[in-house]
Amino acid sequence: MTERLLPIVQKTLEENSISYEVFPCDPDFADTAAFCEKYGFSPDQSANTIILASRKIEPTKYAVCVVLATTKLDVNKKARQLMDVRKVSFADSETTVKLTDMMVGGVTAIGINDLPIYVDSPVMEQEKVIMGGGNRSTKVLLDPKELLKLKNAEVIEGLALPK
Fold first, then answer.
1. What is the pLDDT of residue 107?
2. pTM across the whole model
3. Could you give the domains of the chain?
4. Is the pLDDT confidence value at 58 over 70?
5. Which of 38, 8, 25, 34 is nearest to 139 (CA)?
6. What tens digit of pLDDT does each residue of 126-160 get?
7. How distant is the alpha carbon of residue 153 from its chain centre?
8. Which residues lie below 8 Å from residue 38, measured CB to CB, with a gap of 6+?
9. Do residues 48 and 71 make contact, with C-beta atoms less than 8 angstroms apart?
10. Cα–Cα distance between 45 and 70 in angstroms, integer?
11. 35-44 per-residue burial string, b: 16 or more CB within 10 A, e: under 16
């Protein structure tokens, strides 16, 4: 059986003429560190998608951030500034699933069409990055410049800091 991307991910890739490869993976190794170790990718090739939520304001504001696994999202300064809120935190698993219809461990910016997507500039310096496929059994391998075809994607300097 051929592993398939989540339908919304597949549809977004096709509608935006994004060039990519599907990379099947064992769901038990979908999380970044385990995936990189098992499949021979380096953490600086792994582009993680993180959902942020504002706190203490209604309605809650959300944003999608794409950062390399070798970095740490600057939630308290840069992300907060971009979202124009006083307090921001990582969205919990339940909220992430509800907003994206994707499985934790497979969340990807590709297919999230109604939220701002902030891509850390070092992501763009990679020849290829590996991202979630919307589920835990597939990943998407692509040139990060392809992410700029998403209408709500914006490259941000200093979105993440070295770990």
1. 97
2. 0.96
3. 7-154 (3.90.960.10)
4. yes
5. 25
6. 999 999 999 999 999 999 999 999 999 999 999 99
7. 11
8. 25, 26, 29
9. no
10. 9
11. bbeeeebebb
